[in-house]
Amino acid sequence: QVQLVESGGGPVQAGGSLRLSCATSGYTYRSRYVAWFRQAPVKEREGVAGIHTSGTTYYADSVKGRFTISRDSAKTTVYLQMNSLKPEDTAMYYCAADLPGGYNWRSERYNYWGQGTQVTVSS
């Protein structure tokens, strides 16, 4: 059984940093992408960053230069380093894995999702 467990969220002041982790179990990196999404209250869920099996990374324009997605050498944990946080980054952050072929990393068609970790940035 595949499980994705996010951690690392919490309250932080604007300008601060957080590092989110997505630990996977029962999952083999057979698909193309693992990604981080976020959803703020009364807003649609949006793709924040994705990492391809090749190591290529992708970012939403709103986080480019501030966020970095990476994975460990065993490819069992994916990280999201978030720097220079802004109040508008406040959201529930979700990890997603196993995207079927033919979809862009921003698609929500991932087969597996974590429960999310809350990030709250105060001004």
Please write out the topology.
Elements: E1 3-7, E2 10-13, E3 18-25, E4 33-39, E5 46-52, E6 57-59, E7 67-71, E8 77-82, E9 91-97, E10 112-113, E11 117-122
Parallel strand pairs: 2-11
Antiparallel strand pairs: 1-3, 3-8, 4-5, 4-9, 5-6, 7-8, 9-10, 9-11
Question: Helical segment tally?
Answer: 0
Quaternary organisation of the protein chains: single chain
End-to-end Cα distance, whole Å, is 40 Å
| Overall outline | globular
Strand content: over 45%
Strand segment tally: 11
Order of H and E elements: EEEEEEEEEEE
SSE-based structural type? mainly beta
Uncertain segments: none
How big is the Rg? 13 Å
Largest sheet: 7 strands, mixed
Describe the structure.
With 123 residues, the protein is mainly β. Helix content is 0%, strand content 49%. It contains no helices and 11 strands. Strands 2, 4, 5, 6, 9, 10 and 11 form a 7-stranded mixed beta sheet that branches. Strand 5 and strand 6 (57-59) form a beta hairpin. It is globular.
Keywords:
123 residues; mainly beta; 7-stranded mixed beta sheet
